[in-house]
Amino acid sequence: MNTIGWLGIVRLGLVQTALGAIIVLTTSTLNRVMVVELALPAMIPGALVGIHHVVQLLRPRLGYGSDVGGRRTPWIIGGMAVLAIGGFLAAVATALMQTNTTFGVVLGAVAFTAIGLGAGAAGTSLLVLLAKRVAPERRGAAATTAWVMMIVGFILTASIGGKLLDPFSLDRLMLVSGCVSLIAFAVAVAAVWGVEGEHAAVPDSEARPAFRTALAQVWDEPIARGFTIFVFISMLSYSLQDLIMEPFAGAIFGLTPGQSTMLSGLQHGGVLLGMLLVGFLSGRIGTLRQWTIGGCFASAVALVCLSAGGVVGEDWPLRANVFLLGAANGAFAVSAIGSMMALASAGRSSREGVRMGLWGAAQAIAFAVGGFMGTVAADAARALLDSQIHAYAVVFAGEALMFIYSASLAARFIVPADKAAPTTGAVLAQAANQG
Predict the structure, then answer these.
(1) CA distance 184 to 14
(2) pLDDT in tens, 176-191
(3) pLDDT band at 104 (very low <50, low <70, confident <90, very high)
(4) Domains of the chain, with CATH numbers?
């Protein structure tokens, strides 16, 4: 299969833009409407978003489906269709909650299940298609492009959709959601159409075992199994700070809600910078493996500094520290995704979708439990140490240790594809040990 140029990479990135446009309405806007306008318990949108994460466990099965068929385009288009329908249904369910909370919540559960299935099917197959069609030296830039364009989808929908929602009404919410879903689906179809080519390889019958067999075969590959553990631990470390950063800034440094929100924005700006650095420099300076390891170590250093900063107090350069943490997180995250693309074909043939789905499921689980675990760890440390300062210091130091462990896993399991050839388990184990 021939590689694609920058135009093809940007076209596939538009699928991420479309995906992000639908997701941001369902996880952000609808959450606020349920809690503020409808005065419902916060656990309702929390549980609905949780359903979306839990459904991501099906990513390996969805990837297997595209492996069996040999084509990724139908799964991307079909996934986007299910996602678009789910996004619109979520808005309808939110409107119904005003008059019939029970029925609205039930419909919401159906909608968020569809959102999880659609995002899983489209996202997994999109990454496999990028992995198969992008030249190795461009994978870092391709990963950056895809994720930056998803952020663009967040920004465009938040800004344009936000203006269209005023003056707010539930009818207007359904109309805006329906239009966003329809436009996003149309953009995704136009973006992916023809990129894969007309003659994608269809695996023979021996390459199409039952799903459980295919999953067991992938899990038996030391590289795939080790990289799955790396993805889970590293993304768990990445997400642990999500729900405690702003409370930390307010409790220890006295920042107001507005100032802590701006601090969060500064961190996201750092994430974007880190991603762009990998996109521009990987392949020229360092490999994706080196950027992943370096990003993990840099994240650990920034977290240790943040831990020390809480003890030092208001004289600590908090904003610079948080920005550097974001940049390190962004560099690690996008280089890990590029490495994921590189390793998708490193093993038994016709299992790319299962591998990518397995790693996507590990990432989704990590994000689902990471934020909650961070708050639990902070509460537990506060109860044991009877000091907010020391409690946050312990949690951030623990995250740093997890990033260091992630770096060691990356060093072992991110190896060149030729070293992960699926000849025998011994060859795979040797490659892992040499990492």
Answers:
(1) 9
(2) 999 999 999 999 999 9
(3) very high
(4) 6-202 (1.20.1250.20), 212-415+424-434 (1.20.1250.20)
